[in-house]
Design a protein that fits this description.
The complex is a heterodimer. By secondary structure, chain A is of the alpha/beta class. Chain A has helices at residues 53-60, 87-96, 105-108, 115-127, 131-144, 150-153, 163-174, 193-210, 221-227, 245-250, 255-262, 302-306, and strands spanning 11-22, 25-37, 42-46, 69-77, 80-81, 98-101, 181-185, 213-218, 230-235, 238-244, 312-315, 318-320. In chain A, strands 6-7-8-3-9-10-12-11 form an 8-stranded mixed sheet, sandwiched between helices. In chain A, a hairpin with a 2-residue loop joins β4 and β5. Chain B has one domain: MetI-like (MetI-like fold, Orthogonal Bundle). Chain B starts with a helix and ends with a helix. Chain B is an all-alpha fold. Helix content of chain B is 74%, strand content 0%. Classes of the chains: A alpha/beta, B mainly alpha. Chain A binds chain B through residues 61, 63, 67, 87-88, 91-96, 99-100, 102-104, 107-113, 121-122, 125-126, 152, 155-157, 159-160, 170, 173-174, 176, and chain B through 15-16, 18-19, 22, 127, 189-191, 193-201, 204, 208-209, 212-213, 295-296.
């Protein structure tokens, strides 16, 4: 896409909010997310279940059910407003400009078609080339994602493959039209530990080869450390901390990030009990008026419950949404 | 050591041979199932003999003879005997098969199209449309199927077309319900989202991803309804609501021969036996088909 200058961000999200109408009231899944993503950059969204990571991804692709969700804010992809273009144009963008790898590859692949057919189908849809040519491209893709004896796998059904292989096929499907931005929704969660690493390395390698931007959703800090350029920590539908992977993981500014890091297994921990963050994530239909993390935060005081803390930019590209973040020297933990 | 070295290649070979498509796989599974193959063979025989009834039949199905009434099985020129009007039983059974099969298959096919469409639309679009369609269907569901069939064809009057319409209406609700349930299930699966994420529109999703996943279960269920339809159709004819005499139809023949049951029980039982044979073969074949189509196992 040469029409864009190098400096312009590939993806620019501002003031994104998403809420769902449920029987118990309105659930505010995302409460104001702003970020830019450069071409070829890997951003990791970190957070526990229900913090809005997956919803953010789906909102970026305009995949949320339109009847039941209210979406506000602006998502600019390559300068195009995702929520302003007609559905037809969006269908063109999906798969070609922006594409997605799902968490559970067994469910995300159609059981009645072979892998090769599904990949070729997507290519034909976007590029209108002959099916046979598309199948040849599918073979290249399967080789690219390092599926052994790719030629044979082309004709395999999803249920005939192992979990890791399926996820590779899913990645091949997502890459079929050279997207500029790949969204990966916990791509390794459904896989066993040995395969997880292989898939991550593959993603990282493909990302570098194809110079593609990736947003990787995970609740595994190890994954974030291993793959991300930048890390955003989400809590209750907001970014509570944003920075380079090194900054966020080495020097967490938000007590939630610190809590997440403390509750993770890392080297030389034998004999120590893991620290857990007390309490549970807030009820999204009834968010606290102040900082959403205040009820669980060991440092919370009157300031925190009075009003939601605003973003504090410690340096360019480094943000923490905490009243205490103003004094970097007195960082908690 | 040698044995372990050989293993991988011997494991891989059948997988390589697996490459042909879904239907050839289903076919191969069916071939390995003797019961289903037997039933399919019998069904094929019944269908063929019905199609070629005018070639195979030894006599005129409508030619009555007062002297040769109710001859037993094995009478010269009448291998299966004659009915209460002296007409050749074999001929009438062959011709009757035409009517019975038409009455068995046509209503199910109609209902498959109508009910399947209603169910898929209701399941895919959900919301109010689903409510409207499925609650209307539920009203029809409230009646026992035999009662509904009798009531509708009673209201429409007797005759082949009306009987088919009545049976179609009877079979729409169960097929619509199955289609709706399966569609709702499939629609919620990740691969539908994945298809949307790769840029497919609603129509493409219905055509490419929904239909193939939904049609299998509906189709298998419909094939099991054929036997019900044959029996219901025979019941309607028996009550005088379906095919009208002198047309040959198994249910109708059973009806007219019932007074002869003390005179020639074996002849009188023949149409019933054929109804039984056809419907049990349909059921067993549809069971076998369901098993064979679950390639995902």
């Amino acid at each position: 896409m040469p029409d864009q200058t190098q400096s312009a961000p590939l993806l620019s999200v501002s003031g994104l909010t998403v809420s769902f109408k449920t029987e118990r009231g309105t659930a505010s899944a995302i409460n104001g997310v702003d970020f830019d993503l450069k071409r070829g950059e890997v951003l990791c969204l970190l957070g526990e279940s229900g913090s809005g990571k997956s919803v953010t991804l789906r909102a970026l692709m305009r995949l949320l059910p339109e009847r039941r969700s209210r979406i506000a804010g602006k998502v600019l992809l390559n300068g195009e407003d995702v929520y302003a273009v007609p559905e037809r144009r969006m269908e063109k963008l999906r798969g070609k400009a922006i594409s997605m790898v799902f968490q559970e590859p067994m469910l995300a692949l159609d059981p009645v078609y072979t892998i090769g057919h599904q990949i070729a189908e997507t290519i034909v849809r976007h590029e209108g080339i002959a099916f046979a040519d598309a199948e040849r491209r599918a073979l290249d893709l399967l080789e690219r994602v390092q599926i052994p004896s790719a030629k044979r796998r082309l004709k395999a059904y999803p249920h005939e493959m192992s979990g890791g292989m399926r996820q590779r096929a899913m990645i091949a499907l997502a890459l079929s039209c050279n997207p500029a931005l790949l969204l990966a929704d916990e791509p390794t969660t459904a896989l066993d530990a040995t395969v997880q690493m292989q898939i991550l390395l593959l993603l990282r390698q493909l990302q570098a080869e194809l110079d593609m931007a990736v947003i990787l959703v995970t609740h595994d800090i190890g994954v974030a450390a291993e793959t991300a350029d930048r890390v955003a920590v989400m809590y209750a539908g907001r970014f509570v901390e944003l920075g380079t992977a090194r900054q966020v993981l080495k020097d967490p500014q938000h007590p939630y990030t610190a809590g997440l890091l403390a509750s993770t297994v890392h080297g030389n921990m034998r004999g120590h009990a893991l620290e857990a963050i007390p309490g549970a994530p807030p009820d999204l239909t009834n968010l606290p008026s102040g900082c959403a993390y205040a009820p669980r935060c060991p440092h919370a005081d009157a300031h925190c419950t009075a009003a939601p803390p605003s973003e504090t930019w410690l340096e360019p590209g480094r943000m923490a949404r905490c009243v205490r973040a103003r004094v970097p020297a007195a960082a908690p933990v | 050591m040698d044995a372990t070295a050989i293993k991988p290649s011997s494991l891989e070979r059948p997988r390589a041979a697996r490459s042909p498509g879904y239907w050839s796989k289903v076919g191969r599974r069916l071939l390995r199932d003797p019961v289903t193959m037997g039933c399919l063979a019998v069904l094929l025989l019944i269908v063929l003999s019905a199609i070629f009834a005018d070639v195979l039949a030894p006599a005129d199905p409508y030619k009555a003879s007062m002297i040769r009434r109710l001859k037993p099985i094995g009478t010269p020129n009448h291998p299966l005997g004659t009915d209460e009007l002296g007409r050749d039983m074999l001929t009438r059974l062959l011709y009757g098969g035409r009517m019975s099969l038409v009455m068995g298959i046509l209503p199910v096919l109609n209902a498959l199209v109508i009910g399947g469409l209603l169910g898929i639309v209701a399941g895919f679009f959900g919301g109010r449309l689903n409510m409207a369609i499925m609650r209307t269907i539920d009203v029809l569901y409230a009646f026992p199927s035999v009662l509904l069939a009798v009531a509708i064809s009673g209201a429409l009057g007797s005759g082949l077309t009306n009987a088919i319409v009545a049976l179609t209406i009877v079979f729409v609700p169960p097929l619509a319900r199955i289609a709706e349930t399966v569609t709702t299930q499939v629609r919620g699966m990740d691969f539908v989202d994945a298809a949307r994420a790769s840029g497919a529109g609603s129509f493409t999703i219905i055509r490419v991803h929904l239909l193939p996943n939904v049609l299998g279960p509906i189709f298998v269920y419909a094939s099991s309804l054929i036997s019900v339809s044959i029996i219901l159709a025979s019941g309607l004819s028996f009550l005088g609501l379906g095919v009208e005499p002198p047309q040959a139809e198994w249910g109708l023949m059973l009806n007219t021969l019932r007074q002869a049951i003390y005179v020639q029980p074996w002849v009188a039982v023949l149409p019933g036996a054929l109804i039984f044979l056809t419907s049990i073969c349909c059921n067993l074949a549809s069971d076998g088909l369901r098993t064979a189509m679950e390639v995902k196992l």
